[in-house]
Amino acid sequence: MLAAESVREAQAKLAHANRVMLLGEMVASIAHEVNQPISAAVTNASAGLRWLAMQPPDMEEVRRALERIVRDGMRASDVIARIRALVKKAPPRKDSLDVNGTIREVIVLTSGELSKNNIKLLTRLSSDLPVVSADRVQLQQVILNLFANAIEAMSGVSDRPRELIVSSGAGDSNDIFVEVRDSGPGLDPDNSDRVFQSFYTTKPGGMGMGLALCRSIVTTHGGRLWAMPNDPPGAVFRFTLPITAGSSTEPRSLASHHPLSPKSLQNWRRQ
């Protein structure tokens, strides 16, 4: 039990470090998302002042300008709230979660990076998905990692369109799935499962922890995460989550199925 609790605590620390690293990599994208509603609010405030200066003042236009300012302020606040939730260290909590809403939140955070890298985003989200029992921040982290990996994988592609396709739908065994498909160079078929091993990475400066943490999070939610080749070239990452509550949360299960084994964690501490 003590060993399992140690694994759980180490996982939480690694997951937090991974989230902070991801957000650091997307600073420009996040700044863009926050700057847009702020700029819009300034524009609407200027318009409102002009309507007030008219003789007589056009109070209806002023009212509309103020409504737009409120809307833009709430939009900026919403982006900041998502960032704070990702950075904050907090114990996992499982609530009834709308997976499509979580996907859309990640799209907002990564839209700047997608645009900067000339990547076309296609969404194929099922409109009638049931809710799942999941930790919102952890699920965001999984999807954010998959998006970040797909963006990086396509950064060197020049002979075909760069497309990221995110899909959601109902699975075959009382679960739902989320799929992230890219048009990058793809995965080595012989190493398709090694990408989920701790400290295995194909990135020059990578730590090899992102996908291992993703699989760990999905597993503790009672689901599965795996990779397969895309056709045409690229990679597909898909994970499932059970529709009904009952994901494995017992310490013994965490220790026996956790991809970050005590031995791996000892190696990480030494590094």
What does this structure look like?
The chain has 271 residues and is an alpha+beta fold. The chain has a domain at 91-270: 2-Layer Sandwich (Heat Shock Protein 90), CATH 3.30.565.10. 53% of the residues lie in helices and 15% in strands. The protein is built from 8 helices and 7 strands, in the order H-H-H-E-H-E-E-H-E-E-H-E-E-H-H. It has helices at 2-25, 27-53, 59-87, 99-116, 136-153, 210-220, 251-257, 262-270, and strands spanning 95-97, 120-125, 132-134, 163-170, 175-182, 225-229, 235-242. Strands 2-4-5-7-6 form a 5-stranded mixed sheet. The protein has a two-stranded antiparallel ribbon with strand order 1-3. A hairpin with a 5-residue loop joins strand 6 and strand 7 (235-242). It is globular, with a radius of gyration of 21 Å. Residues 203-208 and 245-271 have low confidence and may be disordered.
Descriptive key words:
single chain; 271 residues; alpha+beta; Heat Shock Protein 90; five-stranded mixed sheet; two-stranded antiparallel sheet
Question: What helical percentage do the residues reach?
Answer: 40-55%
- Name the beta content range: 15-25%
The CATH topology assignment of the domain at 91-270 is Heat Shock Protein 90
Radius of gyration, CA atoms, in whole angstroms: 21 Å
Tell me the series of helices and strands, N- to C-terminal: HHHEHEEHEEHEEHH
What is the overall number of helices?
A: 8
End-to-end C-alpha gap: 25 Å
